[in-house]
Structures are given as structure tokens and as C-alpha cells.
Design a protein that fits this description.
By secondary structure, the protein is an alpha/beta fold. It contains nine helices and 23 strands. The site of thymidine-5'-diphosphate has 15 residues, from α2 and α3. InterPro entries: AAA+_ATPase, DNA_repair_RadA, P-loop_NTPase, RecA_ATP-bd, Ribosomal_Su5_D2-typ_SF, Ribsml_uS5_D2-typ_fold_subgr, Rubredoxin_2.
């Protein structure tokens, strides 16, 4: 007999309380306690002779036979890339993103282009079957023999999927799905978690690949997909601005491929199109260069990407502000401190605004040098030559440290016609690419001197 009991868990720190409280007693966060269900097995204290436990299930590592993971192509090269080279059979993938960014569109396309689309089941809890069919027509896949189901109860979905035996299933979205086991409303943390757990268990037992769609809500997504990240094999998030034509899908976690891998798509009137040569799409094409901009060769997953970093430094009226879009503002504060200590340039009476063009999020330390250069050129109102690229990590001692993918970054920049690169000494190429001058430097100071 399994008894279901409810408890309350803090969505900020995870501590558990038997009663609902307005404030978490552990971390002090307000209104963060949400209901969770726990099931209790009656004999959980006595392990010996526990039903189902047998030594035969313990196996020595070399005896485990591994077959190559079987992968299916989704028909979208960029999606295959973020998945680590195609969809792994029996894996569970969470796709998160703002409402309206293109999750349903991407998955409908991915299902329709599978080698056997009749083995795909698309479960919609949000839209009616007519809406899905209209979208499919718009995407030009209206005649594909996909299986559709409009249903929100987990038990029914699993029962139907057990008879249908699809090879790939999409749940759109997990926030609309509920299980009978729990009383709380669909979309609540406990419903999302329990329904997802049932679906994941079903997928693992039956070997089907499962996509879960999750909406990210505006306050950091605690009640949304974040609570599911540890349950699934792969987590993909949509990045970028909805206003822009481009859609970026990033792998945050992947048991079958590189993390931070980016897939880049363009939203067209016929759905998402893959962008095959994305390196330079985020560079602005203005004829007149302005101060405070620099091109960074960033490293995303397994390939280089040219990104434009813009900074604006202005007199502060009051407490100086550090505002960033697409970049960590703490890292900016750290870099400003290094700039002060090791180059004597102070910005404590200035506001500093920083923007990564195109809505891309930059997290790698290889962007450090570009950030400092952008800030400094805005501060000095200096316009850099358009053909310059930089990359490199800055240490607290003011030294420039090498970063992964140095050669590939330099080659990529040369391919796009850049003439000058300032890079860490450890990333110096054995031979300069044709038409490009590479300055390999050891310190931040030395790097800044190359700008003059
Ligand atoms: P959708 O996939 O419904 O977003 P989500 O599932 O993440 O909420 O995408 C909806 C947006 O995409 C909507 O604003 C319309 C746009 N769109 C196109 O521009 N072209 C298309 O062919 C389709 C199907 C949608
Ligand atoms: Mg949708």
C-alpha cells in the first residue's frame, strides 16, 4: 500500500516543512513554500528481505554490454546538433522557453521530418487538434501521418501510448498535464513534478523518446521547467529576443552531447528554418562604426561564433549603475575592478551599460577581454578599426589566460574577413591565417596597448 502525504517545500532553498508557512524558516524567503506530495512505503525502515532486492542485479562494470546509442535524425540539422548528433532513442528531453517563442513549431517540424512520422505521437494539452492541424498545414507538413492526441491526464496518456507504442512522443506542455494522484491544480510544482516523473518512468521503461515542453515563467522559472532539469537527459532552452527573427536553442544539460551547444534557427512564415552559417548573423551591419563596440569570437559548445559586444559608459548621477543584457553583471564588476587595479582606469563615478547584440547570452570567461575593450573604448570615446576581433580570459592578477578553441576562433574570424586579432599568448597560432595579423599578449595592459 502506498500512502500519499503532502508536505511543503521551499522553492528557493528546497527545505521541507510539514505545514504551510508564509516565510521559509531556513532561508527567510517569503511566499516560497509550495505543496509537494511524498509517498511512504510501510516497511521502509526494514531493508533486509525487502521485496524485489536480489544480488543478481549487481553487475561488474566490464560485463555490461553497451551497444552504440541509436540516434534518429530529426530532419533539422541544427536541432540534431544541439541534441549531440540526433535524437537518442529512449532519451527524455526538456524544451523550455518563453510562451510564443516557437517550442510547438519546432517540435511539430521535428516530428514530421522523422524517418517514420507515423510512429510519432504529439500530445497537446494547450491547443485544440484543429489549431495543431492548421499549424501543420502552415509548416507544409499537413499530410504527414503523425498521431495527435488532445489530452491532459497523465494516466490516460500513458494508457493510450502503451497500446499505440510510438517511438517518439511530445508532451506540449507539461504545465497543462495533471495526475490523479495529486489534488493540486495543473501547473503547480507538485503536479508538474509528479506528472513528469510518471512520464519519464514510462519513457524509460518502454524505450520511447520523450520531449517535454515547459514554459518558463518570468520570475526565474522555479515552478516551471527548472524543477524538472534533474529528471531528464537533455535540457534545451530557447534564448534570444522574440522580436528578432532568429531563434537560438541552447543545450544546458546533455547526457549525450556537448553542453552549451547552440542551434540557430530563423522564424519564417513557414516555420523554423535552420541557419547553416550562423557565425556572423549577430554582427550589426551599420556602415558607420561607433565607439564602445567590439567583436568577440565566442565558443559555444563545439563551434565558434562571432558576437558583437556593446558598452556605454556615461556619467553617473547617484549610485553608479552596472546594467547588463546577455551577460553576468557580477563578472562585469569583477572586470572593472581588475581594470582599475592593473591599468589604473577607474569607473566608480560612471554608469556602465553592456549589451550582447542579438539576445545571445554569453557565459564563457573567454569573453572577458571583449567586455573590457568595449567598456574602455566607450569610456574613451574611441572608435576601433572594424576589422578587429578579441577573446581571452582575464585573471585577477591582470594576466590574460588562454581559452579553449583558440585556433578555431582565429580561423573563423579570418574566414569572415577580420584583419586583426588580440588573443592570449597561450592561444597564439603556429602560423597566422592569411590576411590576418594576430597579436598574442600576456597581460591586460599589453592587450590594451595594442588598441592604440
Ligand atoms: P509557438 O510554436 O506556438 O510558440 P510556443 O509553443 O513556444 O508557445 O510559436 C508561435 C509564434 O511563432 C507565433 O508568434 C507565430 C510564429 N510563427 C511564425 O512566425 N511562422 C510559422 O510558420 C509559425 C507556425 C509560427
Ligand atoms: Mg506552444
Amino acid at each position: 500500500m502506498t500512502k500519499v502525504k503532502t508536505q511543503y517545500s521551499c522553492s528557493a532553498c528546497g527545505s521541507v516543512s510539514p505545514k504551510w508557512l508564509g516565510q521559509c524558516t531556513d532561508c527567510g524567503a517569503w511566499n516560497s513554500l509550495t505543496e509537494i506530495a511524498i509517498s511512504k512505503t510501510p516497511n521502509s525502515g526494514r531493508w533486509q528481505g525487502y521485496a524485489g532486492a536480489s544480488e543478481a542485479s549487481i553487475i561488474a562494470l566490464p560485463q555490461i554490454s553497451t551497444t552504440q546509442t541509436e540516434r534518429l535524425s530529426t530532419g533539422l540539422e541544427e536541432l540534431d546538433r544541439v541534441l549531440g548528433g540526433g535524437l537518442v532513442m529512449g532519451s527524455v528531453i526538456l524544451i523550455g522557453g518563453d510562451p510564443g517563442i516557437g517550442k510547438s513549431t519546432l517540435l511539430l517540424q521535428a516530428l514530421a521530418h522523422l524517418p517514420e512520422p507515423d510512429k510519432a505521437l504529439y500530445v497537446t494539452g494547450e491547443e485544440s487538434l484543429q489549431q495543431v492541424s492548421l499549424r501543420a498545414k502552415r509548416l507544409g507538413v499537413g499530410q504527414m501521418p503523425l498521431k495527435l492526441l488532445a489530452e491532459t491526464q497523465v494516466e490516460t496518456i500513458i494508457a493510450l501510448a502503451t497500446t499505440l507504442k510510438p517511438s517518439v512522443m511530445v508532451i506540449d506542455s507539461i504545465q497543462t498535464i495533471f495526475t490523479q494522484l495529486i489534488q493540486s491544480a495543473p501547473g503547480s510544482v507538485s503536479q508538474v513534478r509528479e506528472s513528469a516523473a510518471l512520464l519519464v518512468r514510462f519513457a524509460k521503461q518502454s524505450g520511447i523518446s520523450l520531449y517535454l515542453v515547459g514554459h518558463v515563467n518570468k520570475d526565474g522559472a522555479i515552478a516551471g521547467p527548472r524543477v524538472l532539469e534533474h529528471m531528464v537527459d537533455t535540457v534545451l532552452y530557447f534564448e534570444g529576443e522574440k522580436e528578432s527573427r532568429f531563434r537560438i536553442v541552447r543545450a544546458i544539460k546533455n547526457r549525450f552531447g556537448a553542453v552549451n551547444e547552440l542551434g540557430i534557427f530563423a522564424m519564417t512564415d513557414k516555420g523554423l528554418r535552420e541557419v547553416n552559417n550562423p557565425s556572423a548573423i549577430f554582427l550589426s551591419r551599420t556602415a558607420k562604426p561607433s565607439s564602445g563596440t567590439i567583436v568577440l569570437v565566442s565558443w559555444e559548445g563545439s563551434r565558434p561564433l562571432l558576437l558583437e559586444i556593446q558598452a556605454l559608459v556615461d556619467d553617473s548621477h547617484g549610485v553608479p549603475r552596472r546594467v547588463t543584457v546577455g551577460y553576468d553583471h557580477n563578472r562585469l564588476a569583477l572586470l572593472l575592478a581588475v581594470l582599475h587595479r592593473h591599468s589604473g582606469i577607474t569607473m566608480h563615478q560612471m554608469d556602465v551599460f553592456l549589451n550582447v547584440v542579438g539576445g545571445v547570452k554569453v557565459t564563457e570567461t573567454g569573453a572577458d577581454l571583449a567586455i573590457v575593450v568595449a567598456v574602455l573604448t566607450s569610456f574613451r570615446d574611441k572608435i576601433l578599426d572594424k576589422g578587429t576581433v578579441v577573446f581571452g580570459e582575464i585573471g585577477l592578477g591582470g594576466e590574460l589566460r588562454p581559452v579553449p578553441g583558440g585556433q578555431e576562433r582565429i580561423i573563423e574570424a579570418a574566414k569572415h574577413g577580420f584583419k586583426r586579432a588580440i588573443v592570449p599568448k597561450g592561444n597564439a597560432p603556429r602560423q597566422n591565417p592569411e590576411g590576418m595579423e594576430v597579436f598574442a599578449v600576456e597581460t591586460l595592459k599589453e592587450a590594451l596597448s595594442k588598441l592604440d
